[in-house]
């Protein structure tokens, strides 16, 4: 099992998690007390065991984790008997065979969940989306989205358009989605004010945490990946000339690189004194090996190799489309 990490989401003073309507909203003084207590708990439990929770068919063993859900949805979370699922100290659903049936709140927003009991605990950022039906004339609350992705009639099970979008305000940018990835790393790069909107699939986060672990095991001391691009609205995706069915518009893709020296470009991973296609190939090979060895069909997907050019260093595209796809020049 993995170890627990600080739950930095709750420690961001400007951030205001949602509270169930059935509960009285705490005052400012009480809120500060709650945040302090959570910080103390996080510090004292920084090495606690994290239970394994099955989310949408994927085994998740890190904390914090993310669950993206539609308003009012009911979601089965698989876990050992004896574990509790709670929101703001109250049960967040009902027990059922093999785990809990989470009752997702009806209002979009961020809801902190906690799985506890036994030796450890897991924090889950439940992100309740704004339904895609709220997009009117290609805009969502003023944010330019463009048309829905076209899908793929031959493979509809792998190309369902996002059912909803996470509303992102400026004070959410540092939200720690997983131990090594923050919300800001996933936003579309189109220029706009806030709120912005984001499609995100849990499978991408599970892939990224696993892939980062594989990279670190190879001796590269990085806390996260450098990001070229993650989510793209269909409008932005078309603007930069990409194909309409890019996985970036489905919320399960990231173009990434290893940047331990922090210069914003791919590092010299093979330590041959050059930063070129060989370093891209090395990272792509780690991604392919991780996908193949994961044992999770849902973590299989695309791996694309991109050489450096005038705008960026080399990078690797990964996605969790559900079937293997490979492209780009290798050695
Ligand atoms: Ca670098
Ligand atoms: Ca090199």
Automatic annotation (TrEMBL):
InterPro entries: Peptidase_M15A_C (IPR013230), Zn_M74/Hedgehog-like (IPR009045). Residues 208-261 form the Peptidase M15A C-terminal domain. It comes from the Bacteria. This is Peptidase M15A C-terminal domain-containing protein.
